[in-house]
Amino acid sequence: MPAARARQVSRPKAEPRSAQPSSPARCDILKAPVFQDLPWLVHGFSTRYGGVSIPPYVTSKRGELNLGQVKWDTAASIAENRRQFIEALPAKKFQLLTLNQIHSDLLRSYGAEGANAKASNSDSPCRDSLRGDGQITAQPGLLLSILSADCLPILIADTRQRVVAAIHAGWRGTLRRIAQKGVGRMMMLHGSRPEDLRVAIGPGIRACCFEVGEDVLRAFESQFNQSMKLFALPPERERPFAERHALMYRNVIKYPLLEKPKKYHLDLVMANVSQLTEVGIAAKNIWTAAPCTHCHPRQFFSHRRDALRAGRMMSVIGIRP
Question: Which of 17, 26, 29, 32 might form a disulfide with 50, Cβ 3.0–4.6 angstroms?
């Protein structure tokens, strides 16, 4: 695949404003417009605003809303953050279900027995939970959750059957088509129809910042017919001078900059949207306007940007009792 044919990607110049923040209890929560007219549904994407956690190596003493288990935070702080987040939704009457996420295509389904599932409650964040990267339920009172700090959180709601799903889609899960398989599981277990489904893809790393190697490109090439549309070369201004003007160095042997591996920018959002539209979900019913986590350090955690100092955001969806 000639690299010259790859499209160019540009970084956003301003923070998107399409998400609608609300802050009834200290923390800000992003809501997807695609779910606004569903009164039976509760959902939200957390930010890093609010909370009581203090990340390492920060000068500000303002508390932050870390909602996942990380080495630098305490169980007590995580529990308090989750309590604030649940209260802000509001979803105090819900049972919070989390997963031990493993970047897989493993999906968990809950019926009436979901209340007894081995999963974390808001008051015990360090309790063991089921392994997997997707949850599905038609049972009211269960709050399905996904933790993320760059990977895409994908929330799905069936407006006719009142079924909901929460999907964790990093590049490995996307490669395994976890979002597509989640829709298939909803169709198989609950009779969902693609035309009745609405999807919100929450804050995650966008193509502007998600740099991957040629090994990831080749892996996607083997699974997606239109894989070339998912990848772009880095912005021109960030490519090495020697790469942009290679003819000047045609007689230089083993020039170090020319020997660096090729890097590409992967569009995870487009990859998941293509999977969802393949199964019949209308593009107008898929919300993709959430911000890039890597581009907005004041608003979101990012593992790629902050490494071990990053916290975790939480994305939730549930059916009101």
Answer: 26
User: Which residue, among 201, 205, 97, has the nearest Cα to 151 in the 3D structure?
Assistant: 205
Q: Which of 292, 278, 271 is nearest to 228 (CA)?
A: 271
CATH number for position 158: 3.60.140.10
pLDDT of residue 247: 55
pLDDT digits (tens, 9 = 90+) for 197-233: 999 999 999 999 999 999 999 999 988 888 888 998 7
Q: Is residue 228 part of a domain?
A: no
Residue 158 domain-assigned (yes or no): yes
* 303 lies in some domain: yes
Please report the pLDDT score of residue 318 as a whole number. 98
Beta strand segments in the chain, E? 7-8, 20-25, 27-31, 41-46, 49-53, 64, 95-97, 107-110, 134-137, 142-148, 152-158, 163-169, 197-201, 211-213, 231-233, 263-266, 286-287, 313-319
Which residue is it, tokens 């970084």?
11
Other Cβ atoms closer than 10 A to 88: 20
Cβ–Cβ under 8 Å, residues 313 and 47: yes
- Tokens at residue 205, please? 């790393």
Q: What burial class does residue 222 get, using C-beta atoms within 10 Å of its C-beta: 0-12 exposed, 13-18 middle, 19+ buried?
A: exposed
Specify the pTM: 0.84
Reduce the DSSP state of residue 131 to 3 states and report it.
Answer: strand
- Overall domain count for the chain: 1
Residue 260 has pLDDT above 70, yes or no: no
* Residue range 4-46, pLDDT digits in tens: 344 555 544 444 433 444 433 478 999 999 999 999 999 999 9
Residue 102 lies in domain: 17-206+269-319
In Å, what is the CA distance from 129 to each residue of 67, 250, 255? 15, 57, 50
Q: Which residue has the tokens 């912005």?
A: 235
Whether 27 is covered by a domain: the verdict is yes
Angle (nearest 5°) at CA 167 between 21 and 27 = 25
Which amino acid is residue 173, in one-letter code? G
